[in-house]
Design brief:
The structure is a homodimer.
Chain A (H helix, E strand, L loop, with lengths): L3 E6 L6 E7 L2 E5 L1 E4 L11 H6 L4 E5 H6 L3 H6 L3 H5 L4 E5 L2 H7 L3 E3 L4 E4 L6 E4 L1 H11 L3 E3 L11 H18 L9 E6 L5 H12 L5 E4 L8 H14 L6 E3 L5 H9 L4 E4 L1 H7 L2 E4 L2 E4 L19 H5 L2 H9 L3 H27 L3 H11 L1 H10 L6
Parallel strand pairs in A: 4-14, 5-6, 6-10, 10-11, 11-12, 12-13, 13-14
Antiparallel strand pairs in A: 1-2, 2-3, 7-8, 8-9, 15-16
Helix pairs in contact in A: 6-7, 7-8, 8-9, 10-14, 10-15, 11-14, 13-14, 14-15
């Protein structure tokens, strides 16, 4: 089985369509992966995630190692069987989660020492250990443990992280794994062009099945993020999948695809759903706003999701204001459906050689959003 | 349309099967109604509630009056349309909720004055106002405002509540309502046989479509509750439906049915689900217990619910321990399915003249539970 094959390239941009083969089905790219850190996409059953158009989700080695434990999951037949998801699973290595979630962490050449955010236990996550966890989980795509420096960081800090990430990637691919468990490396380098290039080059020499861009959307300017993406994509072999980690908003996906990226994950559709921030073709709907109290229409009249087929904005607002769990659930379904449809639209536009039109139309429809963003200030849900 | 018709009586007990006709379908009795106080059965979509076997749910005039307001719901086409539930809706009058939830309440002959538990606003709920709210909501069955004294209370307090409840019922039936909106009276009287009889007799003289037993399961001995039920049932006209409010555990439903009751509602299946207390044919499963950490089996091997078809006890325990919303949801579905199946089993047993066998079998299967209850002490979920 070959992990990845390209079958169409856009003529007007770097956008491309591919097929990512996993032991749990073929994923059409560009693809977005909903986040299911703890063995569940929050609030949804696996078949609902699939109905939103997704064939691969993201799990987290960090969360599942701490609770319920990768050995327990392995003894239950692996993560797919444990959570009853028969599609693909990409697992993050834990490097980023340790830095962002753990109470204390100490990075040495051996690995990342950290205190669990759950009970304070001290653990050491080495590149080998992270791979072993992901092997036990039965991941289809495993991420190597990386050293992800915070933003901002100095060039020398970024260089140290790049070089360590490359050394760790070399150690990672030596860990025995099952057939058809792909391993992706992670390009670091902060906002430094030369370091991003060096990181990509260092990883290319290792036998990796794909490449991720890490350490982006951490607070840098959006223009800097896209510059880094362009720099890295130029270095990467076209025949391998490219994955932008932890990004982002719908426009980030459109722009990432335009720059030749194939895979994305982000908590935004699910987390924003929980805070009542709903995505629509014409812009966002903050469902708590009083203007929706008596609004009998659906969240998005053009949306085909099961929520928009049935429930009014007024009802969703009531559920949100009354702190009812059903509201969180319906918002999540709607947002994931929006993301799923967006990716489906992007794939179709690329295949039909009208990516540029799709991209302009995407922004044209959302003029109303940029206006409402100005009115509201740059409010971000908590 | 005649509200209620009996079509089978058990030969070995007071148990009976009937059909309750509403503007939103026929409900086979004995029936249990899941609680949807705020316009949603917590966490579930209407079709899921239906799939669990329910054709009628309970809404609360108190909650919906305060938020989002009965007038808003009326302007949205009524509660059925607002929440997209096309089955029957019985609404509680608000009397009990005010006493249990409001910050302060003052009962006069005019009605119940209270401070909202949401924002402290002062409101007066009169019998007429409660009916008007329920008419606006579009309820299929409306409960009259009652005076529900706390437990314990003195005989003279209970008598005052009985007499006021009767006077309020007389005022309630005078309020204009739509065709096929049935009105049920509420029998009060605490744990005093004579008062329960007096209350039932007083309500029979009023043109009510059915009768409820209120003020039970408030802390009295279970034997006292069943004695009150027996006393009241003897007084009530057999041709009218009888509804036990806010009760209870599975065994309470079996015993209530045995004593000739037709309708039940309770938060137990949904609330216990949220606390990880799962009902099974052989007893309860407290899913947080360590014994389930690696248990690959379903919650109940005999259960036909979608949760037991797919997910293991180990996975449900993980979701519960990790505080994942999906766990709450799956637990709720399982518990409601259990209640729905129990009621279906009771109806079938009555129709087939084997209610006594069903009842013995129900207890025989649950021997394991009473053992585990002893081991655990009388632990009750929060």
């Amino acid at each position: 089985m070959k992990p990845f094959s390209l079958f169409h390239r856009s003529t007007s941009s770097e956008a491309r369509c591919g097929l990512l083969e996993t032991a749990h089905g073929t994923i059409e790219t560009p693809a977005f992966m909903p986040v299911g850190s703890q063995g569940t996409v929050k609030g949804l059953e696996p078949e609902e995630v699939r109905a939103c158009g997704f064939r691969m989700i993201l799990g987290n080695a960090y969360h599942l190692f701490l609770r319920p434990g990768h050995e327990l999951i392995e003894s239950m037949g692996g993560l797919h069987h444990f959570m009853q998801w028969d599609g693909g699973i990409l697992t993050d290595s834990g490097g980023y989660q340790i830095v962002s979630l753990a109470d204390l962490c100490k990075i040495t050449e051996e690995g990342v020492g950290f205190r669990s955010h759950l009970n304070g236990d001290w653990h050491l996550l080495s590149p080998e250990k992270s791979m072993a966890i992901q092997v036990a989980l039965g991941s289809d795509i495993m991420m190597v443990l990386d050293h992800c420096p915070p933003f901002p960081c100095t060039e020398s800090q970024a260089r140290e992280a790049v070089q360590r990430t490359t050394r760790w990637a070399r150690r990672s691919v030596e860990v025995p794994r099952k057939d058809h468990q792909w391993v992706f490396g992670i390009v670091q380098g902060g906002v430094f062009h030369a370091l991003r290039k060096e990181s990509a080059q260092g990883l290319i020499d290792i036998n990796l099945d794909g490449f991720a861009l890490g350490g982006l959307s951490l607070g840098e300017e959006k223009s800097a993020m896209f510059e880094m993406i362009e720099t890295v994509v130029q270095e990467l072999p076209p025949a391998r999948p490219r994955y932008l980690m932890g990004v982002g908003l719908p426009e980030d996906l459109v722009e990432g695809v335009a720059r030749g990226l194939d895979l994305f994950d982000c908590v935004i559709p699910t987390r924003h759903g929980r805070t009542g921030w709903l995505f629509t073709t014409t812009g966002r709907v903050l469902i708590k706003q009083a203007q929706y109290a008596k609004d009998p229409g659906p969240v998005d009249p053009e949306c085909g999701c099961p929520v928009c087929q049935k429930f009014s904005r007024a009802y969703l607002r009531h559920l949100f204001v009354a702190n009812e769990m059903l509201g969180v659930r319906l918002n999540t379904i709607h947002n994931l459906w929006y993301y799923g449809s967006l990716m489906q639209g992007l794939r179709q536009a690329i295949r039909e050689d009208r990516f540029a039109e799709f991209r302009s139309e995407f922004y044209r429809r959302r003029i109303s959003e940029s206006q409402s963003t100005k009115e509201l200030g740059e409010e971000v849900p908590g």
